[in-house]
Amino acid sequence: MADKIELSLVIPVYNEEESLVFLQDEIAKAMKPLSLKYEVIYVDDGSTDSSLDILRKLSGRYANVKVISFMENCGQSAAFYAGFRQARGGWIATLDADLQNPPSEISKLLEFKNEADFITGIRTRRKDSFLRKVSSKIARVSRYFILGDTTRDIGCSLRIFKKKVIESIPFFRNFHRFFTLLAKDAGFKIKEVEVMHMSRRRGKSKYGTLKRAIEGVFDLFGVFWLRKRPIFYVKKNIDATHNGNAYFRDDL
Questions:
Q1: pTM for this one?
Q2: Which of 8, 147, 193, 207 has the fewest CB atoms within 10 Å, measured from its CB?
C-alpha cells in the first residue's frame, strides 16, 4: 500500500516560465529534511508562455508532481479551488509561484500544526513596491472596519491548513482574499506566523494593482452580505418511539 500523503502543496501558475524549474528545485530541497510524504499540485491558469510545457516536464521528472491546466485564465481563486479538489493530503499548503515566499518557510508554519487548524504567514520586511504596500494597508483597514477582520497580512499566500477547512467554507470568485476570515468564521483555530519575503528574482508580477483594488471593493461588500445570510438550524432530539422504531419531530 502506498504511503498516505500528509501534505499537498497547491501552486497557481500564470506565465511563470522563468521561475518554475527553480521553484520545484527549492521545494524539493525544503521538503527533504521534513520527512513528509507530500505532493505538489501545479495549476496552470491559462498561461500564454511556455509554463505548461515546463510543468509537463517537471511532472515527468518528479513522481509526486501533478499538473492541472485551464483552457483560459480563470483567476487565482479558481486555480486554488481546482487544486484543493485534487489534494490528497490531510494538510494543504498554498504558495505563489514567484518565489517571494521561499518554500523553506513552509517548515516554519508546520511547527504550529499541533496548535491550530489554519496557519498563515505574515510577510516581514516586504519587498514590494510602495504603491502595493499602501494599497494593502488601505485594504486591511477597510476590512477591519467593515468585516471586523483582524488578519494582519491579508495578501500572504503562504499558508497551511487542515483539509477539513475546505470542506467547511463557501467558495466564490476571489475567495482567496478572505480565506483566513472564512476559516475563522467556520470555527477553525487560526495562527499567524512571521515569514520571510523576498524580492522577485525572475519574471515580473502579472497582477495589476488598480484592477485588484477595484475588485477588492466589490468583494468586500459581497462578503459582508454573505456573512449576514448564514444557514442556521437546530435539530431536535429523538423524544419518542412507535412500534419499536425511533422517529424525529420536525427538524426545523
A1: 0.81
A2: 207
Q: In 3D, which of 70, 9, 69 has the Cα closest to residue 39?
A: 9
Other beta carbons within 10 Å of 60: 10
User: Sheet harboring 159-162: ordered strands across?
Assistant: 65-69, 38-44, 7-13, 91-94, 159-162, 118-124, 190-196
Residues 81, 222: Cα–Cα separation, whole Å: 19
Domain at 7-247: CATH code = 3.90.550.10
Q: Note the Cα 11 to chain centre separation in Å.
A: 9
What is the distance between the alpha carbons of residues 56 and 58, in angstroms, rounded to a whole number? 5
The residue ranges of DSSP E strands in the chain, in sequence order, are 7-13, 38-44, 65-69, 91-94, 118-124, 159-162, 190-196, 240-242, 245-247
Q: pLDDT 10s per residue in the chain (252 long)?
A: 457 999 999 999 999 999 999 999 999 999 999 989 999 999 999 999 999 999 999 999 999 999 999 999 999 999 999 999 999 999 999 999 989 889 999 999 999 999 999 999 988 876 555 566 566 676 667 776 777 778 888 888 899 999 999 999 888 888 888 889 899 999 999 999 999 887 666 556 555 555 666 666 667 666 766 776 666 656 666 654 444 443 333 443
**How far does the chain reach from its first CA to its final CA, in angstroms?**
45
Residue 232, C-beta contacts closer than 8 angstroms, at least 6 positions apart: none
